[in-house]
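Example for tutorial group B:
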């Protein structure tokens, strides 16, 4: 596990200013990623690390896109399902505040904005029906549209920083998606059965 240096500053300020909501958000974001991590271990993904950022966490994988689609979908869904589990638990424990934190993390992560889970799930589901390169293009356009709406809508500095970080990740993804596409094609050719669901892809 890696922790971004700014995360330590945020945690210190949260304890100093008694911002328990931030600590709860970070804790359940980390548990969300452990849901992905356990599924990735089960399906033998090539795991790099879990990075803890000031506003969340993410699991870095070396071979995402090179496993069967069903395995990747299950792995992606295991993160939000952790939050759904805690939502149910806190509902029965009448802990409304913790329930809302988990609901927010779950709903935010299933937004179709790269690199959130929802964007990757959308991309995988589109691969059932569409040309794989077109799936990347639709994924990016949807992601950038929602980021633009988010930036226009929000007046919170914290949310603006999050959306700008997501925008930066999309720029990197746009530069690299053709390379990812080529790597997927090569991975398919090294398997006796293609890992993509859509076996008639026009690469």
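The residue assignment follows.
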């Amino acid at each position: 596990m890696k922790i971004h240096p700014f995360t330590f500053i945020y945690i210190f300020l949260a304890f100093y200013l008694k911002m328990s909501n931030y600590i709860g958000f970070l804790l359940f974001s980390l548990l969300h990623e452990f849901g992905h991590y356990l599924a990735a271990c089960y399906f033998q993904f090539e795991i790099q690390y879990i990075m803890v950022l000031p506003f969340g966490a993410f699991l870095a994988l070396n071979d995402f896109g090179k496993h069967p689609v069903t395995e990747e979908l299950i792995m992606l869904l295991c993160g939000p399902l952790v939050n759904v589990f805690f939502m149910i638990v806190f509902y029965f424990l009448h802990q409304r505040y913790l329930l809302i934190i988990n609901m927010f993390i779950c709903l935010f992560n299933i937004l179709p904005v790269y690199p959130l889970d929802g964007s990757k799930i959308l991309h995988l589901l589109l691969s059932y029906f569409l040309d794989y390169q077109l799936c990347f293009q639709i994924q990016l356009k949807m992601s950038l549209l929602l980021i633009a709406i988010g930036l226009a809508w929000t007046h919170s500095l914290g949310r603006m920083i999050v959306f700008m970080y997501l925008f930066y990740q999309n720029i990197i993804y746009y530069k690299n998606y053709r390379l990812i596409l080529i790597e997927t094609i090569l991975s398919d050719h090294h398997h006796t059965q293609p890992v993509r669901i859509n076996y008639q892809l026009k690469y």
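Residues 131 and 202 are 6 Å apart (CA to CA). Compare this with the pattern of hydrophobic and polar residues in the output above.
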